[in-house]
Write a structure and sequence with these properties.
Distance between the termini: 15 Å
CATH superfamily of the largest domain: Ribokinase
CATH architecture of the largest domain: 3-Layer(aba) Sandwich
Helix content: 40-55%
Bound molecules: ligand NAX, potassium ion
Number of strands: 19
C-alpha cells in the first residue's frame, strides 16, 4: 500500500522528528537523495547544465544543497533566485562548490531544471515571479525534477489554482503527499521518487492510500476446495433497456470475468436477447413488468447501466435498493437517485460509481468544481449520502467516511470511452457478491479495470469489449 499525507500531517511529523536530530540534518538527507536522483537522470553529471529554481523557503534550500553536490561533481549549476529571501547556508554551499547565480535565461540552456520554488509551505496559487518561472520551465527542453511537489500543485489535495511546474520526476521527501496521487496534481508530478528522511514513526494515519498489485492480489477472493457457485458469490444485474442493450452485455461480462460464482441478469426482451447471445453463462430472467420477484437470491446487486430513467426503471431501482444486500448504483440509477435521494437511504452497504457529471447532480456542485477538487467532493458525497463513493475520472478515487481515500493509479486515458463504466460496475459488483466491502470492492475493481484498460489499449485506441477480454490477464498480472 502506498500511503500519502497532507502538508499539515507531514509538517507536524517533521517538527517531531526535527526536535530529535541535529539541526539541518534532515535537509542534508533530503538534498543528498535529490542529487542522487538528478545524477541518475543525467547521461553524465560532469559538464551537465543544471538550473535551479530557488524559492525563499526550505524547498529552495533542498535545491541549493542538491545543486552544490552536483556542482562538486562537475556540473555547471546556475541558481535562479525567485524570492526576496534565499536559504543562506544552501546558497553559500552552492557558491563554494562552483555554482553561480543567474537570471532566468539559464532555464533555456539547461539539461536539467530543479524546481525548488515552493514545497509543502506553499499557500494558494503561485505568485509572481514564481508563476512566470514555472511557465518558463515548462517551455524549456530540459528534464524537470520537482523538489517534494511540483510548485503550483497543492500538496494536500492535488488542486492546481494557477501556473504549476510540469515535472518529469518528483522527488518527495519523508512521505508521499496526497497531491501527487490525485489529478490534476498527479498529472504534473511525473514519476515519483521517495527520499526516506526517517519520518515514518512520526506520521499519523494516512490521508490517502493507493493499492499496489500485491495488495489487490491479497484482497481478491480465491476459490477454495469447498467453494460452490453460490458460495463464490451470486451477483444480480439490473441494467440495459430496449434502447440500450450494450450496457447490460458489458456489465454482465465484467461480473463474469471478475469471478462471480453466478451472474443473474434481469431485463426486458431486447437486452435479454443480447446478453443471452454474448454470455451463455448468465442466468437470465426476462421481465414482463417491473417486478424482480422471480430473479432469485443474490449476494449483491449492480443497478443502473443503460437502465433508463422512466417509471419502469424507477420501479426496478426501488426494489433493488430496498434489498438487504450490498448494491452498486451506477449511471441511470444515479440520475434516478439524484431526483429522489430517499432511494439511497438503506441499511445495507451502498457503493455509488458516478463520474463528475453524475456526482454534480447528486450533491448540487458544478462538475468542473468536482473535477478540480476530486478528493474534497468524493469525501463530501460519502458523508452527505452515507454511502461509499467511487468517483470515476482521470484519477478514480474511492471515499468512505472515516477511511483514507483510496486513489487508483492504474488508469489510462484510453479508458475514457463508451461502456467502460459498465464493465467497472460489473467487476465491482462481482467483488461485492464475493464478500468484499464496498471500499475494497470499489478500489480493487478500479485497479483491475485500469490494468485491463492498459493491456487492452497498449498504446492504441481500445473498444470496451477488449477491456472485458483483458480482465483475466489483468488479474493474472497481479502476481
Ligand atoms: N522541515 C524539514 O525538516 C524539511 C523540509 N524540507 C523541505 O522544506 C520544504 C518546506 O519548506 P518551507 O516550510 O520553508 O516552505 P516552502 O519552501 O515550501 O515555501 C515557503 C516559502 O514560499 C513562499 N510562498 C508560499 N506560498 C507561495 C506562493 N503561492 N507563491 C510564491 N511564494 C510562496 C513563502 O513566503 C515562504 O517563503 C519541503 O517541501 C521540503 O522541500 C526537506 O528539506 C526535508 C526536511
Ligand atoms: K517544488
Amino acid at each position: 500500500m502506498l500511503t500519502a499525507y497532507t502538508a499539515d500531517q507531514v509538517r507536524d511529523a517533521e517538527r517531531e522528528l526535527m526536535a530529535r536530530v541535529p539541526e539541518g540534518s534532515l535537509m542534508q538527507i533530503a538534498a543528498t537523495g535529490l542529487a542522487a536522483v538528478c545524477a541518475r537522470l543525467l547521461p553524465s553529471v560532469y559538464g551537465a547544465r543544471v538550473a535551479l529554481l530557488v524559492g525563499s523557503g526550505d524547498n529552495g534550500g533542498d535545491a541549493l544543497y542538491a545543486g552544490a553536490r552536483l556542482a562538486a561533481r562537475g556540473a555547471r549549476v546556475e541558481a535562479v533566485l525567485a524570492g526576496s529571501r534565499t536559504h543562506e547556508a544552501g546558497l553559500a554551499a552552492l557558491l563554494e562548490h562552483g555554482g553561480r547565480i543567474a537570471d532566468e535565461s539559464a532555464l533555456d540552456a539547461a539539461d536539467l531544471i530543479v524546481d525548488g520554488l515552493v514545497g509543502i509551505g506553499a499557500t494558494g496559487a503561485l505568485r509572481e515571479p514564481y508563476a512566470a518561472l514555472a511557465r518558463r520551465a515548462g517551455e524549456a527542453d530540459a528534464l524537470v525534477v520537482a523538489v517534494d511537489v511540483p510548485s503550483g500543485v497543492d500538496a494536500g489535495t492535488g488542486e492546481v489554482a494557477g501556473a504549476a511546474v510540469r515535472a518529469h520526476v518528483t522527488v518527495t521527501m519523508g512521505a508521499c503527499k496526497t497531491g501527487l496521487l490525485v489529478d490534476p496534481g498527479a498529472g504534473f508530478a511525473g514519476a515519483l521518487e521517495f527520499v526516506d528522511i526517517g519520518l515514518g514513526p512520526h506520521l499519523p494515519d494516512a490521508d490517502t492510500g493507493a493499492l499496489t498489485g500485491a495488495d489487490v492480489a491479497d484482497l481478491l477472493p480465491r476459490p477454495v476446495a469447498e467453494s460452490d457457485k453460490y458460495r463464490r458469490g451470486v451477483v444480480g444485474i439490473v441494467a440495459g433497456s430496449e434502447s440500450y442493450t450494450g450496457a447490460a452485455v458489458l456489465a454482465v461480462g465484467g461480473a463474469l470475468r471478475a469471478g462471480a460464482g453466478m451472474v443473474r441478469y434481469a431485463g426486458t426482451s431486447a437486452p435479454v436477447a443480447q446478453v443471452r447471445a454474448a454470455w451463455p453463462e448468465a442466468v437470465i430472467t426476462e421481465l414482463d413488468g417491473p417486478d424482480l420477484g422471480g430473479v432469485g437470491r443474490v449476494q449483491a446487486w449492480v443497478l443502473g447501466p443503460g437502465l433508463g430513467t422512466g417509471g419502469f426503471a424507477r420501479e426496478l431501482a426501488a426494489q433493488v435498493l430496498a434489498s438487504d444486500v450490498p448494491v452498486l448504483v451506477d449511471a441511470d440509477a444515479l440520475t434516478l437517485a439524484a431526483g429522489e435521494r430517499a432511494l439511497l437511504r438503506r441499511t445495507a452497504p451502498t457503493l455509488i460509481t458516478p463520474h463528475a457529471g453524475e456526482l454534480s447532480r447528486l450533491i448540487g456542485v458544478p462538475g468542473a468544481r468536482i473535477e478540480a477538487a476530486r478528493l474534497e467532493h468524493a469525501r463530501r458525497a460519502a458523508a452527505e449520502l452515507g454511502v461509499t463513493v467511487l468517483l470515476k475520472g482521470s484519477t478514480t478515487v474511492v471515499a468512505e467516511e472515516d477511511r483514507p481515500v483510496r486513489v487508483n493509479r492504474t488508469g489510462t486515458p484510453w479508458l475514457a470511452t463508451a461502456g467502460t463504466g459498465d464493465v467497472l460496475a460489473g467487476v465491482a459488483g462481482a467483488l461485492l457478491a464475493q464478500g468484499l466491502s464496498c471500499y475494497d470492492a470499489g478500489s480493487c475493481a478500479a485497479y483491475v479495470h485500469g490494468v485491463a484498460g492498459r493491456l487492452a489499449a497498449d498504446g492504441v485506441p481500445l473498444v470496451t469489449t477488449d477491456v472485458v477480454a483483458a480482465i483475466p490477464e489483468a488479474i493474472r498480472s497481479l502476481g
